Amino acid sequence: MNEQQRQQLESHLAHLRLEIDPVLAKQYPSFAGKPYPLGRCKEIRNAILDKLHIQLAQEKIPEAIKPLAAQLSGEQTLKPVWGSLRDEYFQNAILIDDWYIDAANDTVNPNKPRVEVVKLEKSGFSPISSFEQFCAIAQKYWQVTLYKNDVFPALAPFLPLVCVNQQGVCWLGAANDDMISLARTSEFTLSERVLATLPSTPNHIKTAWYTHYNHLPEHLLQQTQVDPVTYCQSYRIQHKHSDLLFRDEIVKAYLQLAKGVSVV
User: Fold this and answer.
1) Domain that holds residue 111
2) How far, in Å, CA of 191 to CA of 40, rounded?
3) CA-to-CA distance for 78 and 90, rounded, in angstroms?
4) Measured between alpha carbons, how far is 56 from 63 in angstroms, rounded to an integer?
């Protein structure tokens, strides 16, 4: 893709944003009190990706995305990714070969252009490689306080963090495929490491969780007195990191807690 083609693709994607923005703004008018498009990079990225797949399947492909079609015919893929952008914030984007396509470039600063297409090496984008890196970004970007997940310690090897924002909303983290995969790939050593450094969750926050979710019979949520590091070590010995069925059990248990609690 040469410079002219890059600019044409950016322009094309910006026009697609004009199509999807009114729909998404109605569906997602705000995020944490901030108006659309702020905080909606995943929804925007996914909607643009859907549009591109539809256009690429057409008999007459728009001129601006023909370079993408050529790369896809060479066994490349339009790969949705999530990670760190310059360690300043989290971002959802699209990769194809060595190109970084950010169709939601204005979801942190609405004054920036809607779309950015740039070589990956110049983008500042990288996968998250540790929970410490995740914590550092989350504290700055989300303005959260972080604790170890000793609220539901049986989930902690997969979800080692308790996050509390300035409005008093509390949730478990980091509940996305990338971070769960990071925990599993490390055989829970990265979870164990961050659990050893974070402070315990204050009792009033634990009480809020248990009061709100005490009706749940899920056995993974009942073992609240065991140290979360013990679970990391136990799961490692039992090879739970490679057990996809157990991963699914963890995710199902988490989904019952996904709305979090208010601790104000």
Assistant:
1) 3-126
2) 27
3) 19
4) 11
